[in-house]
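pinned: reference chain
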Amino acid sequence: MNNHNSSQNQHRTNNSNQHLSLYQLSGNYLQALDFLTDPELDVPMEAVNDTLEGISGELEDKAINVAKFLRNLESTAEAIKAAETAMAKRRKALENRASWLKGYIKDNMEATGISKIECPYFKLSIAKNPPALEIVEEQAIPQHYKHTETINVVQVDKAAIKAALAKGDPIPGARLSYGTRLSIR
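pinned: its structure tokens
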């Protein structure tokens, strides 16, 4: 009967320790070690070894399970990283394809003289871009549109030239050009 009760107590102890964290198990192990090795208590060595072995086994099992969970997290993170790389590659390919298709439609609409196409889903139209500055001969640009940076590189002030040309001021060596783009609304 005494053996049966001690077996039930051991079973209860094991069940209650199943929910302890690794940190708690480590603390329990150290407390048990301290208590069981107290020379004043005169605990039989067999009892000390059995108790420490049981706690040690639980600690090892818990550590192994935590390490397995850790490996799973690392594996999942690696899979996500690989998926992100693959998705970024796919996104770039889709963006390039969309850009090509947009140019394809624009070029064909311009080649056939069609400026608008409407459907229930959207409207395609060839729209004029805002003027873009083209520097056709940098040396001919007047000096007051240029500035020198500290690295001694002469830079043309494109914003000032564009503004002056937009107001109608002629600037030698520069002109405004008007391109087109496809607008999908």
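why pinned: The first strand starts at residue 116 and ends at 118. The helical segments are 2-17, 22-36, 45-112, 158-166.
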